[in-house]
Specification:
It holds the Pfam family PhzC-PhzF. With 311 residues, the protein is α+β, with helices and mostly antiparallel strands. It has six helices and 17 strands. Helix 3 runs antiparallel to helix 5.
């Protein structure tokens, strides 16, 4: 392969089925691409995120990743980490005769990310594999001035009575990237939500990451803990089918309002159902001394397509 040819893959992430979950582009052999070229390629794919893989700075690690939306670079994101980890594992062990567990050390802008990958022999298990990664930056409150509940409802095309349930109120948390956490009273209300751009900045702030993560306890699937939606219209993503970085930030929100006790807590988060892209994200975190001490995000990924970029 010449230097002008770069292999790429398309995966569906947080699903074991093709044409579900969150699609992801992963470009291998990204050495030599400028920041501007990476941004243009991400815009060309026009998916919520595109990952560019290059050799790691530390030879003991597996790869360096850079993550771009159609409009900007991110320091960290969940479904690119899961998808890239599964793909790199499948590239490393292409002809498995039995299922295999491996560990990937991935260099991202936020820092080193450790991912545990399970690869399936001959495509067994319904996909290329599963990955679980340790969240590199624990969720914490983020200082963004929000609009009133009325203004938040208006920006989502909802009524003020749709915002909030139990003791949950809108807050902002970040695990690398900030998200406005918006509790929605039920499934009917969250299904009606839609971004209203003229009202967006008033409700969620005028900055690069004024993304809204809506959640409710009512779910489609019996085994799910929360039903969610994520809108990021100012980043060129009207709605995202699955957002691992938002799920990581959501851990802080759960801790604040639900106050889980000491120990390990697991949650299944469903997203993308309104888009016809059903996604399942596994969130696990540990609590010690009343605060988060560790977080993990996991899910499945399946390879959908591959090709070559002539750039």
């Amino acid at each position: 392969m010449s230097k002008s040819e770069r292999a790429y893959f398309i995966l569906d992430v947080f699903t074991h089925e093709v044409l579900a979950g969150n699609p992801l582009a992963v470009v291998l052999d990204s050495d030599g691409l400028s920041d501007g070229e990476m941004q243009k390629i991400a815009r060309e794919f026009n998916l919520s995120e595109t990952v560019f893989v290059s050799p790691p700075k530390n030879p003991a690690h597996n790869a360096a990743l850079r993550i771009f939306t159609p409009s900007c670079e991110l320091p960290f994101a969940g479904h690119p980490t899961v998808g890239a980890a599964v793909l790199l594992g499948s590239q490393r062990f292409p002809d498995l005769e039995r299922d295999m567990d491996s560990v990937m050390m991935l260099e991202e802008k936020i820092g080193l990310v450790r991912a545990r990958v399970k690869l399936y022999a001959n495509g067994a298990g319904g996909g290329a594999g599963d990955a679980v990664f340790d969240v590199p930056s624990l969720s914490k409150p983020f200082d963004i001035q929000l609009g009133s509940k009325d203004e938040i409802a208006a920006a989502l095309g909802l009524h003020i009575k749709d915002i909030g349930f139990e003791n949950h109120v809108p807050t902002v948390f970040a695990a690398g990237v900030p998200f406005v956490m918006v509790p929605i009273r039920d499934m009917e209300a969250i299904g009606r939500a839609s971004p209203v751009l003229p009202s967006w900045n008033t409700a969620f702030g005028s900055h690069d990451h004024n993304d809204a993560y809506l959640y409710t306890r009512e779910t489609v699937r019996h085994g799910s803990s929360f039903h969610t939606r994520m809108f990021a219209p100012t980043m060129g993503i009207v709605e995202d089918p699955a957002t691992g970085s938002a799920a990581a930030a959501f851990a802080g929100c759960i801790c604040r309002f639900d106050q889980p006790g000491k120990g390990t807590h697991s949650f299944v988060i469903e997203q993308g159902f309104e888009m016809g892209r059903a996604s399942i994200i596994n969130l696990e975190f540990e609590v010690a001394d009343g605060r988060l001490s560790a977080e993990r995000i996991g899910g499945k990924a399946v390879i959908v397509a591959s090709g070559v970029l002539y750039i």
